[in-house]
TrEMBL record, chain A:
<dbReference type="GO" id="GO:0016491">
    <property type="term" value="F:oxidoreductase activity"/>
</dbReference>
<dbReference type="InterPro" id="IPR036188">
    <property type="entry name" value="FAD/NAD-bd_sf"/>
</dbReference>
<dbReference type="InterPro" id="IPR023753">
    <property type="entry name" value="FAD/NAD-binding_dom"/>
</dbReference>
<keyword id="KW-0560">Oxidoreductase</keyword>
<dbReference type="InterPro" id="IPR051691">
    <property type="entry name" value="Metab_Enz_Cyan_OpOx_G3PDH"/>
</dbReference>
<protein>
    <submittedName>
        <fullName>Pyridine nucleotide-disulfide oxidoreductase</fullName>
    </submittedName>
</protein>
<dbReference type="InterPro" id="IPR008143">
    <property type="entry name" value="Ala_DH/PNT_CS2"/>
</dbReference>
<feature type="domain" description="FAD/NAD(P)-binding">
    <location>
        <begin position="3"/>
        <end position="309"/>
    </location>
</feature>
<dbReference type="Pfam" id="PF07992">
    <property type="entry name" value="Pyr_redox_2"/>
</dbReference>
Automatic annotation (TrEMBL), chain B:
<keyword id="KW-0411">Iron-sulfur</keyword>
<feature type="domain" description="4Fe-4S ferredoxin-type">
    <location>
        <begin position="59"/>
        <end position="88"/>
    </location>
</feature>
<dbReference type="InterPro" id="IPR017896">
    <property type="entry name" value="4Fe4S_Fe-S-bd"/>
</dbReference>
<dbReference type="GO" id="GO:0046872">
    <property type="term" value="F:metal ion binding"/>
</dbReference>
<protein>
    <submittedName>
        <fullName>4Fe-4S ferredoxin</fullName>
    </submittedName>
</protein>
<dbReference type="InterPro" id="IPR017900">
    <property type="entry name" value="4Fe4S_Fe_S_CS"/>
</dbReference>
<keyword id="KW-0408">Iron</keyword>
<dbReference type="GO" id="GO:0051536">
    <property type="term" value="F:iron-sulfur cluster binding"/>
</dbReference>
<dbReference type="Pfam" id="PF00037">
    <property type="entry name" value="Fer4"/>
</dbReference>
Length: 364, 165
């Protein structure tokens, strides 16, 4: 029996765990990775945001700090290398643990916070099953966790923050990034990321996408093409690039299977990149005992995930009767910080998406 | 245009480059940050109040060039690697550029490296005057360039003797 089971040990889940444990709640953190930290442990770049959100600190350092923090709490247990497979009405979650999945556990939890993150999107193109075609997250894992470079000449598909950041990390690993293509007419990620890659000589082609890959046993060549505003290939604009690796950074989708299974009311919100659970501003879903935080609540970034985690952790603990000195004030501050983070033109879609997924007061 | 290419235009740069008089007085910061994003470490890092405190986390940095000493502490604070310090007063013919650098190998003091423009194009060779290793691993390279190149050079390429790719 635990008070709060937190599913996912990335920035959102870790933040939720630390906050709830600091208020005295018995917390069980379940994570499927070999080590905690989620995507943070691959993030070698410095974070944006404000000091409170670890601005200027590299993601790997943030993970280290948070993993250190959770060790301070005797009331916080970690179940690592484990996948939650289901949630049942009698407050029981089922857990499959171990590399071979041969340990089955059941855990009764008064509240659960789902912070399962996201999965990477794939792109349809000719020969996309050739070895040498990777998703950006896989490339980051190989390089930054295991010290293995994926190839020597890379085409990056997608100029969002992930595409830009992973391109930069590839350059740091001494790998040639031949080009970045972006289907949209403008760069989606932070322009400072784009500028720092440009000045290292990597071209960024907007309104371009990957048409096909060539190769016998692995990727040997990629053909990119300009596209029009209807995303149709413009004949005669093809370029051939000699690359051995194609890295796809074409977006993420919320990993919300558990929320579907648990019976939360779900909604397709394109601005949040997929199906998300409806939630109130405490991050509580339509199920009274289930909270969400991070990318599973809508694709955003780690700073907002950490804030959502804190909001969920705080409110889940309060709902169980744990006390927080000046709760109102703490709660208001976190929500205000989150609002400020999103108060810029780039976050316009996020704001619209969150509005669509929000259960307003008095909704009951 | 910046949003399509990742390269700031002359119009973009005109808004953030200090006047000729200030440039002539010696080292001063150039912040090539043109997009409102939630980020404020530069303003926090400045001990002289030259990068004005932000009212909103999404503000663009505003510099009071009369207060800027060109100390360069903000350079490695910037997650976007968008901050440079230019000293047009460095010597008779040369300007000094301090730029953030997170690549390996680091050049050595006195080493001659390629000076790159905002598109990564080679503008010529330039001498490294100083290499400042910073704890957060955004190191600072001081580069001697012809004065006419001071607003063009924004990166370097070091020839890797051990690992030529």
């Amino acid at each position: 029996m635990t008070d709060i089971a937190i599913i996912g040990g990335g920035p959102a889940g870790l933040s939720a765990a630390i906050y709830a444990a600091s208020l005295g709640a018995k917390v069980t953190l379940v994570d499927d990775g070999l080590e905690l930290g989620g995507q943070l442990i691959k993030q070698t770049h410095k974070f944006f945001g404000s000091e409170k959100q670890f601005a200027g600190i590299r993601g790997i350092e943030i993970a280290k700090k948070m993993i250190q923090d959770i060790k301070e709490y005797d009331n916080l247990e970690v179940i690592a290398n484990a996948t939650v497979t289901g949630y049942y009405e009698d407050e029981v979650i089922t857990i499959v643990q171990g590399v071979n999945g041969d340990i089955l556990k059941k855990l009764k939890a008064k509240r659960i916070i789902v912070a399962t993150g996201a999965s990477e999107n794939i792109l349809p193109f000719v020969n996309n099953d050739l070895p040498g075609v990777y998703a950006a997250g896989a490339v980051q894992t190989l390089m930054n966790l295991y010290g293995v470079v994926p190839g020597n000449n890379i085409l990056m598909v997608g100029a969002g923050n992930i595409g830009l950041i992973v391109s930069y990390q590839l350059l740091q690993a001494g790998i040639k990034v031949e080009a970045i293509v972006e289907a949209l007419p403008r760069i989606g990620g932070y322009l400072v990321h784009a500028s720092k890659i440009r000045r290292l000589g990597v071209p960024i082609y907007t309104s371009h996408t990957l048409k096909e890959a060539y190769g016998t046993d692995c990727v040997e060549k990629a053909v990119i093409s300009e596209i029009n505003q209807n995303f149709e290939f413009i004949p005669g604009t093809e370029k051939e690039l000699e690359v051995d690796t194609i890295c796809l950074a074409v977006g993420l989708s919320p990993l919300s299977d558990l929320l579907w299974q648990a019976g939360c009311q779900m909604k397709y919100v394109p601005e949040l990149c997929g199906h998300v659970a409806l939630r109130d501003d405490n991050m509580k879903t339509t199920k009274d005992k289930i909270y969400i935080a991070g990318d599973v609540a809508g694709i955003e970034e780690a700073s907002s995930a950490m804030l959502e985690g804190q909001i969920a952790g705080l409110n889940a603990a309060i709902s169980l009767g744990y006390k927080c000195d000046n709760y109102q004030e703490q709660d208001r501050k976190l929500k205000e910080e989150l609002k400020e983070l999103r108060d810029n033109p780039l976050s316009e879609e996020i704001r619209r998406g969150v509005e669509k997924a929000l259960i307003k007061e008095g909704w009951d | 245009m910046l949003e399509r290419t990742g390269i700031p235009t002359d119009d973009d740069l005109e808004k953030i480059i200090p006047g000729k008089k200030r440039l002539a007085r010696g080292p001063v910061v150039i912040i090539e940050c043109f997009q409102k994003i939630p980020c404020d470490p530069c303003a926090i890092s400045c001990k002289f109040g030259a990068i004005k405190p932000f009212k909103d986390i999404n503000d663009l940095p505003q510099v009071d060039f009369t207060k800027c000493t060109g100390c360069g502490i903000c350079i490695s604070s910037c997650p976007g690697l968008a901050i440079f310090v230019i000293d047009m007063n460095y010597s008779e013919g040369k300007a000094l550029i301090k730029l953030p650098y997170e690549m390996l190998p680091l050049p050595e003091k006195g080493e001659v490296v390629y000076a790159l423009d905002r598109a990564g194009g080679k503008l010529g060779k330039a001498k490294v005057a100083k290499v400042l290793k910073i704890k957060n691993k955004t190191n600072i390279i001081s580069l001697e360039v012809p004065k006419s190149m001071a607003m063009k050079v924004r990166s370097i390429k070091v020839e890797d003797k051990n690992n030529e790719r």
